Predict the structure of Bifunctional protein FolD.
Amino acid sequence: MVAKILDGKQIAQDYRQKLKEEVESLKEQGFTPKLSVILVGNDGASQSYVNSKKKAAEKLGMISEIVHLDESTSEEEVLNELKRLNEDDSVSGILVQVPLPKQVSEQKIIESINPDKDVDGFHPTNIGKLYIDEQTFVPCTPLGIMELLNHADIDIEGKEAVIIGRSHIVGQPIYKLLLQKNATVTIMHSKTKDMQSHLKNADIIVSAVGQPGIVSKDDVKEGAVVIDVGNTPDENGKLKGDVDYDDVKEIAGAITPVPGGVGPMTITMVLNNTLLAEKMRRGIK
Ligand code: NAP
């Protein structure tokens, strides 16, 4: 069996076209979604992430701004900027780019974002809502994975799904989303014993570790769906996933490449959530 390639780049492009049409329709009603991103410091990768989010938002007709603060900015100053954006009625969604400098507590900042503008879905209120199945902002990478599965018509109900990694931004929310779709879900981490036996039994594997090669052909059942979230730059700066892609694609039923799989879906879901934030506060379904 040769796997169906889940082409995140193409799927993201199609999804963004639909979002663009929704933005146009909102603008006709007098509402323009606006995404504000706080960036503290001069980390090159962070600067490039926030610039691509801004560009992507503008391409859809949204307004986007980067609030760029100096590396030495105090926690209080970041909180003041956040308060300003929380209260600014022109702002639909707020992102704070991580990592933050050491003098600024990431958790304190996340907890200070207005939950109605928390388009990353990291605020405890939104995490709680996700866990009780209320409509909320779902973290963008897991949401993007669900859209990839949905787009490829992959049946989730009753399937054995295995996740490697239990972070708050990927592993745990994807656990909840797969459970909502009636999969039987196992979540693994660095203390899991005998990962291979769980993997071998899985119909759906989501790997979110950041260790190239952690999933190899011998771990994967014939026909399984393999979602690779890993994103590790090699010595030449080329991004590597967690999965031995060339080997695993020979036996998997479907697989995401790295780059070009989950990554493009993540930014798309930032845009999706910004649009959702604008619609929610305007009472538009
Ligand atoms: P993280 O917070 O570092 O979490 C990594 C998880 O992997 C932890 O739960 C850890 O277990 C587990 N782990 C580490 N070594 C393991 C091992 N040998 N066996 C089993 N589990 C192991 O990472 P993250 O933020 O979720 O990101 C994971 C990867 O996804 C990274 O490469 C990141 O760059 C990538 N990523 C990509 C996107 C995208 O849009 N493409 C978005 C987000 C993240 P413990 O909990 O026991 O420590």
Remarks:
- DSSP finds ten helices and eleven strands in the chain.
- The radius of gyration is 19 Å.
- The chain has two domains: 29-114, 140-262.
